[in-house]
Structures are given as C-alpha cells and as structure tokens.
Amino acid sequence: MPYDYDEYLILAKTEVTEGTDPTPAIGDAVLCVGSPQWNPLAASYGDRELVDGRAGAKKQFVGAPHATLGLSVELAAGGDDAALDTVPHWAALLLACGFAQTVTADTKVDFQPVSADYGSVTIHPNIDGVDGRLLGARGNAVIEGRAGQVPRINFQMLGLRQAIAAAAQISGSLPAFAEGLPVGAVETTITIGGEAMRVSEFSIDCGRRPSFDDMAGHRGVRINRRRMSGRISLDLPTIGTKNLVEEAAAAGTQAIVITHGASGGDIVEITMPAVQIKTGQFTDRDGVLAMPLDLQITPSSGDDEITITTK
C-alpha cells in the first residue's frame, strides 16, 4: 500500500543541548498549513574525477549530508483568553531562528532577536509511518499577511539528518490550537509613525541566512548574520496626514506597529521601533492610488529591531 500524504505530523521541541534529541511528544505538535517541504537528504554531490580507462559516468560522493524542512503556520497567539501568557505552538521554531522568549505571567509572551547563544530545535516529521528527524535545526522566518487571508509565518529550517525509518506516529490527542484570523479592518491595525494606514499586504523577513557546515571539528547549522527587511503595500494617505515620499527622501526612521487580533488570547503584535521606509512607484489598486514600501528594519538600541508579542 502507498503511504498517505495527508497523514503528515510534525513535532518540534527546543533542545537543551544542541543536536541532542529532547524526544518531542504529541504536546509539541506544530499545526502546519499548506504542504510542508521536507528534504530528508540535502547534500552536495561531487565527482571523484577518476581516470580508470573506461568511458561513462562515475559514481559521485555525497558531501555535507543534512536535512531541510520548509513549513508554514498561521500567525496566531496562544488562544487562551484566561491565560494570556500561553506560549504559541510555533515558539520552538522561532527560537531556533535567532530569537529569545520572555514570558510575563498572565499577561503576554515576547519574542526578540538575539546576537549570541542561539537556540536549536529537534523537528520530528512523520508521514504515515515514514519517520525522520532534524537535529540541531535552525533557520529563518518570514511573516506574510494579505487582506482577506490568514497571515502566516513561513519557516525554512536546516538540521542534522537522522536516517529515515519506518515508525508509527506519536499517539495521543493533539493540543488545542488557536484559530487564525484573516487580515481585515476588525482584526488588524497597522501604523507607521503613529498614523493608521490602509494596507493590503505586508511581509517581514527576519533576515537569517542559515548555512550548514560539515568540516573538521564542526558539523551543524550557523545563523550568525541578521538583516531584517520587509514590505508593505498600502493606499497612499493624504499628503497632509502623512507624506511618505518625502519621509523616505529624508532617510529617517520611525516606528511601525502591526496588531492582529482584537480579543485577549488572539492578539499578535509586531513592533518595529526604527524602520527606514523606501518608496516605490505609484500603482493602481482597483482605481485607488497605492504604493509599495520597502522596509529597512534597524535596531534602536541593541537587539530590539523587532518584538513579536502574543497576548
């Protein structure tokens, strides 16, 4: 019998020691959307360039074998209005993208970038009994939202591979997941420099460029660099209210705040205190004068260029 692709389950748990499996359980399940992209053997194949007196192709060697996983989750908070400090199910993945987590009891959970002591995660995908692991995994996250659709966090993860084997999925009841809310006037507000904007699309790239090292003395995933950027597509506000073009020409920075969700337990707030905006050409959005903004997301004082808060 063929394997059933619909029986796809992904677990993720923060590692105490990099590369050591903390054995994720059903409570560590990640609720993905779309189709995860799991490559259980990513590698560089090379020729040995043998001169053996025979024509034809030669067997290649497998260099730097590892595994990759691309997956998306809904941008949603913990979902418990009685416990606003509930950690969202995607937290372990974000922590492995160069973030740290701060829980304020009964109030909120904050995620901010770090420049050292990067966390790692064990990711355990299983497709109808086709079982594998990514150990010591790290990666990058991109947040995307569009009017009328549920915003997502797209993760691209790399990790040490574990041999593919046949193993039953972890059993038990899945944890409760918050339902994602579509971007719209009721659930979403976006301000630039304190002024509310009419926004049709937004994206934030957390700017990590993970790479896999396999060399003498070290084998693992690096995410040393961080260059955050973003993009917003909006209806041009009245010049007297907000002159975005001239603000871009002045090359200053200002705060951008994205708040998604209107009720306790459903709110995700993204705060960027020092963003330089770069304007593009005017566009026609169904008869409305619109414009894209590219965002240069810079730190204000240390590792604070973005704070993602769930509450």
Give an overview in words.
It comes from Minwuia thermotolerans. InterPro entries: Phage_tube_2. There is one protein chain. The protein has 311 residues and is mainly β. The protein has one domain (8-40, 62-167, 180-310). The chain is built from 2 helices and 19 strands. The strands form 2 sheets. It has a 17-stranded antiparallel sheet that branches. The chain has a two-stranded antiparallel sheet with strand order 12-13. The model has no long low-confidence stretch (mean pLDDT 96).
Strand content: over 45%
Low-confidence stretches: none
Domain count: 1
Structural class: mainly beta
Question: How many strands appear in the DSSP assignment?
Answer: 19
SSE string: EEEHEEEEEEEEEEEHEEEEE
What characteristic shape results from the CA principal axes? Answer: globular
Q: How many H/I helical runs?
A: 2
Major pleated sheet:
17 strands, antiparallel
Q: On the 0-100 scale, what is the average pLDDT? A: 96
Radius of gyration: 22 Å
Helix content: under 10%
C-alpha termini separation: 45 Å
Write the layout of secondary structure elements.
Layout (H helix, E strand, L loop, with lengths): L7 E7 L17 E16 L12 E15 L16 H5 L3 E6 L3 E6 L7 E7 L2 E17 L5 E15 L21 E5 L2 E2 L2 E7 L5 E5 L2 E5 L6 E7 L8 H7 L3 E7 L7 E12 L3 E3 L2 E10 L9 E4 L1
Antiparallel strand pairs: 1-6, 2-3, 3-8, 4-5, 5-19, 6-7, 7-8, 7-11, 9-10, 9-15, 11-14, 12-13, 14-18, 15-16, 16-18, 16-19, 17-18
Organism: Minwuia thermotolerans
Protein name: Phage tail protein
